[in-house]
Amino acid sequence: MPRRLTDLFFKAFFLLFPAVIVYILITDSDGCGDQPRDFRFFPIAGGAAFLLAVIWCFIDKQRHSYIKLKYILQTVLRFFLAYIITQYGAAKILDVQFSPNLGSMATTVADMHPMTVAWTFFGYSFGYELFIGCSQILAAILLLFRKTATLGAILMVTIMSNIVFVNFAFDVCVKFFSCSYLAMSIYLLVDDAPRLTNLLLVNKTAEKRTYPQLFQKKTAQKLLATLGILAGIFAIAYPMLDTMRLKTKYRVGQHSPLYGVWAVDSLHHSLDTANVLLHTDSSGWKKLLFEDYNTAIVRSWTADLVYFNYETDTTKHTLNLKSYPDTLLRVNTGYRLDKDTLFLYGKYGNDSIYVRLHQQKKYLPRK
User: Fold this and answer.
1) Model pTM?
2) Which of 171, 234, 263, 287 is surrounded by the most beta carbons within 10 Å?
3) Which residues pair with 335 in a beta bridge?
4) Nearest by Cα to 10 from 191, 210, 215
5) What is the pLDDT of residues 90-132, one digit of tens each?
6) How far apart are CA 329 and CA 11, in angstroms?
């Protein structure tokens, strides 16, 4: 009975994992996961794989050992996981995934979505982010070589277990994908379970891991080895290069001159000739946040937020803000920087405006 059950589960995983890989490669670039299509695909794919596995067992009932097929599946999973985990590792090493978000830094934890809390925590320290990224790259490299694949799978299970727990605990929207990576990592250790038990639990000698020879001809073996080397290089190099391209495209880390959180000291408006001290005006501006990606946020004393797209001209020292999604509100000013003090002077709609602000460096943990 255990042998038949083991055979059934192998066939189910052999049918399921390739389908999941194709699905992830097609949809992973669409942004956040856990979408309605994911809730449809994974149950249907799992049920279909199990049903087909039962039919397979019924048709081929005399055979319960698929050594070469098992090795092929393990190899595909190793290279796929190396490719995926390198994407995540490169995003952390190059500071693309968790680069600080000033809007989050200037928001109380109680007002944050749980996922934002996690992202803000991971992005607070680049040293911590770098440590996680290097660990992921190391696991990816270890997975590519047969002699170190077991160690790579152990490290991968450790990393993915933590990621899955964080995803569920903080409602991060990639639960299906991360659980898939964890399941694949665990599967890579199934054949090593007796060896690991002997080594780690019962203090016995662990036998050497053996691998089947897929082809008998030397030419085919050399060709397969060459393809494996090229696939390994691609699994590591492409995610690194692609992440570098994205960092350059979106100018990650290349901040505008006004980047930061600025607290408003005073505001003079043409509708009120007296200088408006915003500590006594709940409807006035409290802070201006100039983010990356040309996004600015105005926070009032009532905690209301107004979002802008902004452009700066460093030669003419001009600042243009356009609110969104409502684009009717525009602010066109000149600006002057004096160390940690910012002066804005120009037009707020049809009215003149003059604002004095100072930078709050506590929201810039990496500077």
Assistant:
1) 0.89
2) 287
3) 344
4) 191
5) 999 999 998 878 888 888 888 899 999 999 999 889 999 999 9
6) 61
